[in-house]
Amino acid sequence: MEFGEFIQQFAERVGIAFPEIADDAVAFDADGMPFFVMKVANGGESEYLVVAADLGEPPPERLEKLYQALLDAGHNFAGAGGGVFARNPHDGHIWLQSRESFESMDIETAISKVKALGDAAINWRDIIREYREGTPVSGFEPQDGGPGGEAVAGFMQV
Length: 158
Hints:
The chain is 32% helix and 25% strand. It is an alpha+beta fold. A five-stranded antiparallel beta sheet has the order 1-2-3-5-4. A hairpin with a 6-residue loop joins β4 and β5. The radius of gyration is 17 Å and the shape is globular.
């Protein structure tokens, strides 16, 4: 499936206006936050569907606590909607990103993954604002499980 056809089906299913495609990428607004879906080639070998959201600039205060909370949320992808957190080295903004094989991606799986990442991104954007304002942090409780935890979903313990 071509990327344009994929995005058209995606837009129709989630009920958004068909976004303009530029360089195999689209951008749209998710509750006031920039959200991107793009097709990226990996050295000509594979193509990936990349979903990314700019969560904004972290606050100067309590930065260590925020980074700790982001790392905790990323453990076993529990609070990251299946994505990973990253810091843009050029502007310091926090991003939530995901990468999946485009060749094997069907539209239903894509919608599910984009929705999970979008929900997590909106949640973390709000948490970052709370850090900035200095209010208590809520919205994520670390889960037991995954490597180093009790329950290991998708992993075989040896």
